[in-house]
Amino acid sequence: MKFIKLRARTAAGAFAVTAAAVLATAAPARAATYNVTDNCDVPWINCTEGDLWLLYNSTAYAVQDGQYVTSWAEFYGNVSDYWGTSQYQGSTLTTYRYVFNGNGNGAWQYVKNNAASVQNCSEVDNYRVYYNSGYEGHSQYFAHREPYGDCVLTNLDSTLKNENASEHFA
Fold it and tell me: What is the residue-wise DSSP string for 139-169?
């Protein structure tokens, strides 16, 4: 009888040692999340500057005496989801959330479904802002500015005001 108990204890011990070895060699998954006010600040997005500005307030409340009194976020190119973007880097999931800058009203709020107006500051790129992520649903077109012209501040239409989720070159 002693032999059977010893064999059971030996098998259980070997299993415990094997399980501990497997757990010790497995790399723990980690996550890192950052807030950015410009999608060009995301390392895997290749751009130089944001051309399309989404502003927290509508045109009537965004600028006073020639100064912005609202927060904004800048974007370049196609953005499939204003919530942000994620990518695995090794065993770490890195996520960048898009937020309005700390300039005024709406400071540090998430961009998705919070913008009221848009300013297209590109000399060549036209954009569409969409109701849903993935360039789906109702959209509004924003033409590029004229060379050496001012960026035109435009309200989002009533469907897109505070219900905006993505943008695409138009």
Answer: EEEEPPPPTTPPPEEEEPPTTTTT---EEEE
